[in-house]
Specification:
Chain lengths: 338, 329
């Protein structure tokens, strides 16, 4: 999946997202984009760059700084036959507008008994590592995935970013599309080069709800998503040098969650480490470990481990933030501790 | 703008249907809930917010709407739903939690959805305002006709969602009408104790839109002002805010002892009950004779009884239905 051949069409995640949206907007008049600074600026994280030039300000619609209004407006528009893509600039901002998300967007299909569909995509940036402190650096994967009624995806690379966005825009249910800032290919944020991969120009979808085995191995299963995948791949390289064969799984989607791929992998390796930049407790890491334990605990040769963000607000100072963030060394250390 | 004879009779009919419906629900709600009141018991469990007294708002506004127009309603939605043309039998069944209900029992009385007439609810205060803007935006972008009306209570005007939606509707010049039902009470807190201005129509100025205040729960005045606002929206001239003084003749919810209401307040409101007073006016204006109105009332009661019987006779959904319709089919 993480193709690095130099002759191929490598895109950044930001460009892949914008390309997907543009292609879908060309064939589906119902698709439009709303959010803060997604027009002339092209999105703070580059994922709507070029769209306003092609589609104009009506369909690429800069909004007031008013998340409750425009996210709940997207719900109303989606129920009326449109297919809005809205942006919550930083996932941390969900605190000002969560009713629109979890009480309206996520519940109107159910409360209507399936009469209505809510075909909308809420894209939002996640992740830290660049000293933006605790109101602009969180992941909050577990907070969204916990609540029923919305699909939740998070790509680790440009290929998946494009295919997931296309799949999300074609889904009749709401999809939370969480993109990690450190994977966007925005130089000013610092970026993970492994996210820029071969991305076909033609449109395609990546299935929502299907995990990917990015690297096969026999001794330990490393499970992650978004930035966690890259940390896991680096850890797997490091472990390989020490003669340990690690399998790396990219969850790609949290809701629906592909439990089977994780279960099958751990059945083979007998060891599980979950890598998650979200807070340690009550989150994705706990869900993955529980999935394996509930299915067949006897497959585990050692107690599972998690490499996660500690249960503290994210600090500003570089040294303190880096101390808290998951990284490849912590994954290797976790393996050695098993 | 005055209602035609047909519109007046339609308004009266829907007010009576709504009142008979609420009276029926009120009675059935208490089944199984005495001597000890337990909200979880009886054929209609859960919270129950009745709209007795607020019927003029619903009919005065909805008289101008077609089924293609959009209404977002509140936790107290029955009168609005009836006036918008929501299927009465299916709504009754939903309130009973039956499989034949609008949502198969998943929503209940605070979450009435009927996509056939573009009617949706939120049980959370002021949260219908944004979706109304979105539906209006959808029509505007698709060049399709349609106005969205967001109903809310006077207690909802201090929510951010209301102000954010007012701004969005104004800055994008959307065909939306915000209708504030001022029944004077946000559960137990009076308007005077919660809101910095005595009338919320003044808040329209902050968003550069027209604001109107209508006194005394008058269906004719509501018809007139709402008609102007909806006409304005249809003409592409943007949103309007209307606050309507109306009467909450019941408690906030059933079981509410209403100890917070001043003595005599409710009696005075019953004296001004809008249904008898509209009947008197229809007779005085010669819109109908007594026999004509009697027939409207009898037909309304029959419609309600049929809907309630349908709800009673219907089955509950299989338990496992709880696990379906989370995502679109």
């Amino acid at each position: 999946m993480l193709d690095t051949k130099s002759n191929e069409r490598r895109l950044t995640v930001a460009r892949a997202m914008a390309e997907s949206i543009a292609q879908e907007m060309r064939v589906d008049d119902r698709v439009f984009v709303m959010g803060e600074d997604i027009g002339d600026l092209g999105g703070v994280f580059g994922n709507t760059r070029g769209l306003v030039e092609e589609f104009g300000k009506d369909r690429i619609r800069d909004t007031p700084i008013s998340e409750t209004a425009f996210i709940s407006a997207a719900v109303g528009a989606a129920m009326d036959g449109m297919r809005p893509v809205v942006e919550l600039m930083f996932v941390d901002f969900f605190g000002v507008c969560f009713d629109a998300i979890y009480n309206l967007m996520a519940k109107n299909i159910y409360f209507s008994g399936g009469q209505s569909s809510v075909p909308m995509v809420l894209m939002t940036s996640t992740g830290g590592g660049y000293s933006d402190a605790g109101q602009h650096s969180q992941c909050l994967y577990g907070s969204f995935a916990h609540l029923p009624g919305m699909k939740v995806v998070s790509p680790s690379n440009a290929y998946d970013a494009k295919g997931l966005m296309t799949a999300a825009m074609r889904d009749d249910s709401p999809v939370i599309y969480m993109y990690h800032k450190g994977l966007q290919g925005m130089g000013w944020l610092g970026t993970e080069p492994g996210a820029n991969v071969n991305t076909p120009e033609s449109d395609y979808t990546v299935e929502i709800g299907k995990a990917k085995v990015l690297r096969e191995g026999t001794d330990v299963t490393l499970v992650g998503l978004a930035m966690g995948v890259h940390n896991a791949l680096k850890a797997a390289d490091n472990l390989a040098e020490q003669g340990v064969s690690a399998e790396v799984i990219d969850l790609v989607s949290l809701v629906p969650l592909d439990r089977e791929t994780v279960i099958n992998s751990v059945a083979k390796t007998g060891r599980l480490i979950v890598v998650d930049e979200d807070y340690n407790s009550y989150g994705v890491s706990g869900e993955i470990i529980t999935t394996v334990c509930e299915h067949d605990i006897s497959k585990l040769k050692a107690a599972p481990k998690r490499v996660t963000y500690p249960d503290v607000p994210i600090p500003f100072a570089r040294n303190m933030e880096q101390f808290c963030l998951p990284n490849a060394d912590k994954i290797v250390a976790a393996y050695k501790d098993m | 703008m005055s209602p035609t004879k047909e519109q007046q009779l339609w308004m009266y009919e829907n007010m009576v249907v709504s009142r008979r419906f609420e009276e029926s629900i009120e009675k059935i709600y208490m089944e199984g809930k005495s001597p000890a009141f337990n909200m979880a018991n009886g054929p209609i469990p859960g919270e129950m917010h009745l709209s007795n007294g607020q019927e003029p708002v619903a009919v005065g506004v909805c008289a101008h709407l077609t089924k293609d127009d959009i209404v977002t309603a509140t936790h107290r939605p029955h009168h609005q739903a009836i006036a918008k043309g929501v299927d009465l039998k299916k709504m009754a069944a939903e309130i009973f939690g039956k499989v034949t209900g609008l949502s198969g029992g998943r929503g209940g009385h605070m979450h009435i959805f009927d996509s056939n007439v573009n009617f949706a609810c939120s049980g959370i205060i002021a949260q219908g305002c944004g979706p109304a803007c979105g539906a209006a935006l959808s029509r505007k972008m698709q060049n399709k006709p349609g106005v969205a009306v967001a109903f809310l209570g006077e207690g909802a005007v201090n929510q951010g969602a209301f102000h954010e939606a007012m701004n969005l509707a104004a800055v994008w010049k959307l065909p939306v009408v915000f209708v504030v039902e001022d029944n004077a009470w946000g559960i137990s807190v009076s308007k005077a104790d919660s809101t910095a201005v005595p009338r919320n129509d003044v808040r329209a100025a902050a968003y550069g839109m027209p604001g109107h205040f209508i006194e005394n729960n008058d269906p004719y005045a509501i018809f007139e002002i709402a008609g102007q606002a909806i006409e304005r929206a249809r003409a592409g001239e943007g949103p309007t805010l209307i606050e309507i003084e109306t009467f909450r003749l019941a408690g906030h919810f059933m079981g509410d002892a209403e100890g917070y209401r001043p003595e005599g307040e409710k009696d005075a409101l019953f004296e001004k009950d809008p249904i008898p007073s509209m009947r008197e006016r229809l007779l005085a204006d010669g819109v109908s004779d007594a026999a004509g109105l009697d027939k409207i009332e009898a037909d309304a009661l029959a419609r309600v009884e049929e809907a309630i019987q349908f709800a009673r006779d219907s089955e509950y959904a299989p338990d496992e239905d709880a696990l379906t319709s989370v995502f679109a089919a």
